Amino acid sequence: MPLLRLDNIMAYYGPVRALNDVSISIDAGEIVCLLGGNASGKSTTMKTILGMVRATAGSVQFAGERIDRLPTQSIVARGISLVPEARRLFGRMTVRENLMMGAFSRRHESTADLDADYRRVFALFPRVQERLDQYAGTLSGGEQQMVAIGRALMARPKLLLMDEPSMGLAPVFVDQVFDIIRSINQQGTTILVVEQNAAVALGIAHRGYVLQSGRIVGADSAGALLASDEIRRAYLGDED
Amino acid sequence: MLSFSDILAILPQQLVFGLTLGTAYGLIAIGYTMVYGVLFMINFAHGDVFMIGAYVGWALLGVLFASHIVPMHPLFVLPILLIAAMVVTGLLGLLLERLAYRPLYQRGATRLGPLISAVGASIFLQNAVMLIFGAREKVYMTYAIFPRTWRFNLGGISISVLVVVIGSIAVAMMLGLNQLVQRTWLGRSIRAVAEDREMAAVMGIDVWRVVALTFCIGSALGGAAGVLIGFYYTQVDFYMGYSAGLKAFTAAVLGGIGNVRGAMLGGLILGVVESLAVTFINPAFKDAIAFVVLILVLTFRPGGLLGEALPDWKRV
Amino acid sequence: MRGLLAPWRRLAVPAAVAAALAIPAIAPNAYVMGVITRICLYALLALGLNVVVGFAGLLDLGYVAFFGIGSYVYAFFSSPHFGLHWPFLVVLPICVGVTAIFGILIGAPTLRLRGDYLAIVTLGFGEITYILLINLDRPIDITGGPSGIITIDPPSFFGFALRDNWQYYYLILLLMGAAVLMSRRLRDSRIGWAWQAIREDELAAQAMGINTTVAKLQAFAIGAAFAGAGGAFLASWQRSVFPDNFLFTESVNILAMVIIGGVGSLPGVILGATLIVALPEVFRDFALYRMLAFGLLLMVLMIFRPGGLLSFTGAPEEADPTESAPVQAE
Prior knowledge:
heterotrimer; B: mainly alpha; two-stranded antiparallel sheet; 75% helix; disordered C terminus; C: mainly alpha; two-stranded antiparallel ribbon; 4 strands; 67% helix
């Protein structure tokens, strides 16, 4: 049974139809990437999974349970975390508090358990530990990205959603971030990455979907997508 | 005209009065600022919630007097009155949010809708109280609980125990709230919702529940302020919520709307300014002072003294 | 339902005008005439507020200030108070002009404020005006203090002073009619479009090149001017002015007329004025409960009929989550 299933999703963003008969499936342990250009519907897909946008048709299933009619906080409580586009940290809270907010759904668990997760985040991102008592709004873009990922990990999610993690980052940093994404996956977290930068996303993913104007136009293993001429031309900037 | 030495003589006393008044304004202002922080709405009826707190205190005081259940001593009377007022106004806040405001917000009504509804709620509450309790002002028998002789001398100024108790309770509540907001999960979730409602939900926070609780807490603080002000001014009327509300709102804006510490600071400043103005300028303009301050702040420094605590326009 | 009414709609306006003109003949007694005259006065005021709130979308909670200023200015120029007894046709423009200027003065600080803040600040101006009216009788007696100004002259036109109910009625009907015509012209004019754009989305309006500052000030000035005319009428009809004529509750009343009738709708506003003035007269026994019901009505109306009683769609616009700071981003 796949961990996450979207079946024939139709969704609107305001008056515009953003998703048209979208079906996606993700198995536990995978990294799946969702590719596409601007306004292809990538972000709307994320929002639909999280219940921030209501699908008008179709269903979303997580671990066998239908979640598309649930409010966002219930969906999140079932083990899905988000690293949003443009980070969206709580700028007026400290880094420490942001991480704590990530663990909100686990706030009643033992301190020992939570400490283990803090340590895991610090191991991945030493810089975060250095900046614990700084206000998140004062950090640089790259540092904020680290905190944003750390915050999402604090919930010990079964599924991690990442919305354009490369956005606004210097290329050298992008590689670092994607290496980290790979290690997070190797530690057991299933990941769905939405990305415009197809090359780097396909570099770590197992499989990929391609969205165009709200429709899935391609679905294959990462290797096959990388090799595909069409994909190369459209999204990887290759001219043959 | 007052001579310089006259002014020096009265000044400390007036400062004490002003600060005491200011702590009460601060308590009410916190209610405005917290609600604005999570809903971006001025709860126009908040002042009337404060008024109802004062009336609850008065009614209960009368009951305690008549029934002699407890000794007429502040140690017994104050906690009972405060808790009762806070419970009633807290529930009232929940009710208002659920019935009068949430239907408008969940439908995405324009700014006009909730504000007009709030005006309606304010009128309704004022008139309900007037009809139930009568139009004449009610008297708090302050001096039966705090004898006038309970005063002491501090550096040449005569301060009454009443003033000290009121100020301390108000300050204690504000400190308590500060702890709540900074150190507890509820407080953090309120701050998160105020800053970015969508991301707060993504953290697993039940946003509407947080909003309701914010209303509840803000209203309860306002209700407590009602009891304190009742003791301070010794009389309450159904119209007091309107003027106190506007002053407290000014205090909230002065400190920076959305900023809890700002509300406390704004309250203190406004209390002192009003007290001094009443002494040295015409007392008739007492109520106008707050408005003048409000207009000045909004014209020259709309973010308030401590800066408004609102989400950024451009997210990083 | 609109379709059904269509053939009759062309008759509606002329019929209404004819009925209005015939009122003095139909009205059973002086009391009813008085009520109808008051309805027209408040309709005039509501039309003025409609320009500010309905057309331009600026929630003015202190509108009664302009009403008061207009009244007192009339009292200054046409009563024993300062010993001036100028004729109506001279004083009316003065009232209108002065209130328009105050409209600009009061509007100016609010230009950069968002909805809630605008409302509170205008409320503040309303209160300040009231406080000034009550207190400006010392050291120099400008406003007559709490006892106001009395024995104001009735309106006089070339030596002929108004005396009878029906004469007053036609005067206010004239003023109100002018207000209706002006409102329609304004709504369909370039200014009207500018106001609508500002009401929908001020930033977008600015981006389109609309000078929002001028447009908003114009709304305030024109709205105030209507109230100034109403104030002149009140002073000369009541033959007296008191600060208590101009309390905050009046601002709320007038606002309610605009809202109940349907913000922006001219017949709606007139209907609102009629209801709010007439119903308390009808339900005089329930006077005590009137304000209570009023408050309840406002709340209920916002939930079920935000477009006003005459609207058939209850659809409110989308909230804009970026509209949060008290002051607009530049």
